[in-house]
# Entry
Amino acid sequence: MLALLHTSAVHVPVFDALRDAAHPGLELRHHVDAGLLERARQDGPEAVAASVAAVLTRAVSEGARAVLCTCSTIGGVAEAAAAVAGVPVLRVDRPMAAAAVAVGPRVLVLAALESTLAPTAALIEEEAQRAGRPVEVRTRLVDGAWPRFEAGDVEDYLRRVVEAADSATGADVIVLAQASMAPARESTTARVPVLASPAPGLAAGAHAARRVRPGGLGHPDPGVPAGE
# Structure
């Protein structure tokens, strides 16, 4: 079983649909805690480290073989808690970051939340170092997008993300930093690849849940397809 840690309930049907399409038979168990993101935005991601570890411990006690954190702001904190959880803990955006580095050195990160920009940029730089590739990461906050998301106006939220991607220049690849931005990828007319995290992140999580024995730590190579 793969447990998913979300900070918004909107992700639950998204990942269920991805599971049904690409990983049939994989059991998912969703843990939603919006308060984690609120606290991380106010006080920094490390402020929720103990709470994240508690969620992971509970997920493992309920049978999780691996945990996937779908929130980019607290993804690094979740990964760091793998030793406490005793199972692989993955951040949903790591496979996307590895893919971005492989495309080209000029990476533009788009995010609707300012708290997501620095963790995503740091992750891309980490993956570039791991791959031995040069990288130049730029970040851009999509103006006015997050208030629309919080208001439940997903259509306008995604429209703003699409406009930001379509107007981007000087990049080899565009990274949509938050899982909630993923649908914008289908509508953009950007001339460079636009990457989103849910599908490759779930594939990595599925691989970990199916392959790693209880008690194993770490995250799988993002280049390894799920189900092998």
Confidence is low (pLDDT under 50) at residues 214-228.
